[in-house]
Amino acid sequence: MAAVVSPALAYKEELKAAQQDIIAAFNADNKAEQLLHDLCRSVDGVLTKIWKNFDFPKGMALVAVGGYGRGELFPHSDVDVLILLEQAPERALREKLENLVQVLWDIGLDIGHSIRTIEECLQESKADITVQTSLLEARLVSGSRKLFLELQQRYAAVMNPQHFFQEKLLELQQRHVKYEDTPYSLEPNCKESPGGLRDLQVILWVAKAAGLGNSWRELAERELITATEARQLKRNERAFKDIRIRLHIHTGRREDRLVFDVQTPIAETFGFKTTDARRASEYLMQRYYWAAKAVTQLNTILLQNIEATLFPQPAVPQPINERFNEVNGFIDIARDDVFEQSPSALLEIFLVMAQHTELKGMTARCLRALWHARLLIDAGFRHDIFNRALFLQILQSPQGITHALRRMNQMNILGRYLPNFRRIVGQMQHDLFHAYTVDQHILMVIRNLRRFTMTEHAHEYPYCSQLMANFNQPWVLYIAALFHDIAKGRGGDHSVLGSTDAKKFCHDHGISKANSELIMFLVQNHLTMSQVAQKQDLSDPDVVQGFASLVKDERHLTALYLLTVADIRGTSPKVWNAWKGKLLEDLYRITLRILGGETPSTDRELKNRQEEALKALRLYGLPGNAHEQLWQQLDMAYFLRHDAADIAWQTRSLHDKLDSAVPVVKCRLSPIGEGLQVAVYVKDQADLFARICNYFDSKNFSILDAKIHTTKGGYALDTFLVIEPTFANHYRDIINLVEHELAEILIHQTPLSPPNRGRLSRMSRTFPIVPTVDLRPDDRGQYYLLSVNANDRNGLLYSIAGVLAKYRINLHTAKIMTLGERVEDVFLIDGLALQSPRNQIQLETDLLDALRI
C-alpha cells in the first residue's frame, strides 16, 4: 500500500525544493534581486493553492504586506499576510482561518498574519505607523480583487503624506540613535543601521505616500535626484540585499547583523582573500562602509527634496559672500556652477560653516553640487597654495573644527584632499580594543582634543583642560591627531610611516620647522607615553629620566600627554579608566619636574613621600610616633611605589597589628575612580598571590593594579585595585564582606582550585591573539621582567599566578593593562628558579599553556 502524504507535507516539500533551486541559482549567478523575486513567486504559488483548497467565500482576499508585499522575500524573512474580510467572521469561518494559519506554519513559513476588515485596517493604520507602512506595499495574492481595490482606494483617501513623512522621519531618527547614529559600527546591521536597507526603504515609502514615485528611476524623472544618483542608490541597494541574502543563507536563519563571526565567511563568498596586510573581512567591511556612507549622503539630499515638496517654504537667500547664501538656516550655493568656477569653494564652504555655527547644514542643492564636484579635487587642487591655506584655516578655526572635518569626511572631501586618509576610510581595526574604524577613531581623537579647549567640558578632564588653556597653537595637536593612525593597514610601523606622511604635509603647507618637528615627534611617539606609564616602574628614576630625555622639553611633554589621553579615550569606552588616567598624570608630573631642572633622587623622593604621609596621619589623630615601628619594617621600594595617601592609609590600618597572627585585610573605596582598594597584611606564605587572585576571580573582580611587598619581618603587604562593573555605586556595601571573606580564605589555606579557563568573548574568539611571553632581566640584573600578551578572559590572572606559584617565583609588582579584549601585563619577579636557563624556558612554556584556551 502506498504511503499517504498529507497536503501540508506535500506543500512543504514543494516549497523547500523550489527554494533550494532558487538558492542554487543565486550561488551560480549571484543575481540578488532575481532570488528575492523568485522566492516571493514560489511562496505566492503555494499560498494560492492552499487558499483555493480551503474554498473560502468569494468576498475575501489574501493580501501580501510588508517586504513580502513589496515582492521581495529574503531566504529566512517573515512572510507577512493580511486576510481581508468584508465583515467580522462567524465562528465557523474563524476556525477555518485558524486552520489556514496552522497549515502555513506547518509548511515551514515564518508567517506573520492579521485578520481584518477594511474598516479595521484603516483604524489600525491610523493608530500605528508600522501598520500604515505595511499596507502601503500591500499586494493581492489570491481572492477578491474587488475587495482589495476597495482597501487601496480607501487607504489612499485617508493617507496624509505630510503626517506620514514626519512620523517616518522621527522613526528613522530613533532607529539611528539606537544604532549609535553611525554607519561605522564594527558589527553593523545591514538592514537597520544608518545607511542600510531600511534607510533606502524609508525614502521609497515617503515618496510613494506622497505620490512622487515608486522607484529610484521615477524619483529621478521627478528631478528629486539625478540619474547618476539614482544609479548609485540602486547599486548600493543591490549590494546590501546581496549581503543580507548571504547572511541568511550562511547562518540558516533570519540574521541581518554582520557580526565578527560571519564577516570572514561572508567576505569569502564575495571572493575576497586574506592578504599579508589585511583580512578578507576588512576588504568586505570597507566596501560596506563606503556604500553606507554614500547612502547616508544621498538620503540626506532626497529627504530634503521630498520635505521641500511636502512643506514648501519661501526661500529668501541672504548673501554670505559671493559664492554662498544662507537660506532658511542652511548654507546654499549662490550659483549652480560655483564649485566648477571656483574649485577652492570645495574647502571654503567648510570654513564658512565653521565661522557661522548658526547654520544647521547644507541645502539639498548645495549637498548635491558638492557631492558631484568632489571629483574636482585632484593633484593640481592639492598643490594649490590657496587651497592649502584654506585647509589650514579650517584646522585653526576657533570653533566648528570637529563638525567641519566630519562633514568633509562624510562628503569624501577630506579623503580626496588627503589621499592617505582616503585609504583608511571605513578600515576596521582588529586589535581588540578599537571600537571604531580608523577614520572614525581619528576624528574622535580630534574631537577629544577640541573638548579640552571648551569650558563646558572642563569638568571631564580638568587637568587636560588646564594644560590646553596654556598650550600655544593647539591646531598643531589636531594635525598630529589627523596623522597618528593614518598609516594603519599598510604594513610596517604605522607610527613611522605616519610620521613621514606628516612631514610631507607640514612641508607642503608651510608649517614652521619647530611645529613640523613637534607634529612628527607626536605621530612617531603617540604610543610611547601610555606604554611607559602602564608597563614600566615609575618609581625607577632611570625609567623617568629616559622618558624625559625622549620628550626633551615641556611643550613636547604636554603635547604628548594631551594626545595620549585623547587617543586612549578615542579607542573604546571600555579602554579608559581613572587608574590609567592617574598613571599618565603621574608620569607627566614626575617628568615635568625633571625637565624643570630637578635631578632624579630616590632619597629626596623618599623623604617627600614620608613627609606627605605624616601630614595625612596627623589628620587621623594618631600619636606622633605611631608610624615608626611599621616604617622600620619597610624598605625604600615600598615608599617609592606607593602614594603618600596610600602609605598613610596602610599605616593607620596596620600600626598596631604588626605581629598579628591572623591575616589583616583592609578595604576602602578606590581613591581613583571606581572600584575598591584592598590591602592584605599576613605572614608570608606560599601561593599567596595566587590565593588572592583566586578569590577576586571567584567574585568576578578585575585587578587593575597590584603592588606586592615583603617586610623585613617576613610579612607580605600587598595592595590591589579591583573593579567589578555590576557593583557600580554599591562598592561601599561590600567592603565588610570582602574583608571577612578574603581573611577567612587566607586563614584556612585550602588547596587552590584549578584555574577556571573562562570563555573568550565573541570578538576574541573571532580574532584570537597568539599568546606571547617575554622573560628578561631588568637593566640592573636584580629582577626579571615578565611580559605577557593574550586575549582577556575571566581567570586569566589567576592562571598566571598559579604558574608563578608552582615555580616559587616572588612577585614584586604587577602592571595589569587591559585594552578592551586584550591584556598586556608586566610583572617584576625574582626567584631561585630563574637562575637556570632550562627552568626559564619551562616557565615560559607553562605560562603559554596557561594563556591559551
Short description:
This protein is an alpha+beta fold and 853 residues long. The chain contains 39 helices and 17 strands.
DSSP summary: helix tally = 39
Radius of gyration equals 33 Å
Percentage of residues assigned to helices: 55-70%
Largest sheet composition: 9 strands, antiparallel
Give the N-terminus to C-terminus distance in angstroms.
Answer: 57 Å
- Poorly predicted segments: 1-5
Mean pLDDT: 90
The percentage of residues in β strands lies in 5-15%
> Any idea what the shape is?
globular
The tally of strands reads 17
Given helix and strand content, the structural type is alpha+beta
Describe what you observe in this structure.
The chain has about 850 residues and is α+β, with helices and mostly antiparallel strands. About 55% of the residues lie in helices and about 10% in strands. It has 39 helices and 17 strands. The strands form 3 sheets. Strands 9, 10, 11, 12, 13, 14, 15, 16 and 17 form a 9-stranded antiparallel beta sheet that branches. Strands 3-2-1-4 form a 4-stranded mixed beta sheet, sandwiched between helices. Strands 5-6-7-8 form a 4-stranded mixed beta sheet. Strand 11 (about 700-705) and strand 12 (about 715-725) form a beta hairpin. It is globular, with a radius of gyration of 33 Å. The two termini are about 55 Å apart. Residues about 1-5 have low confidence and may be disordered.
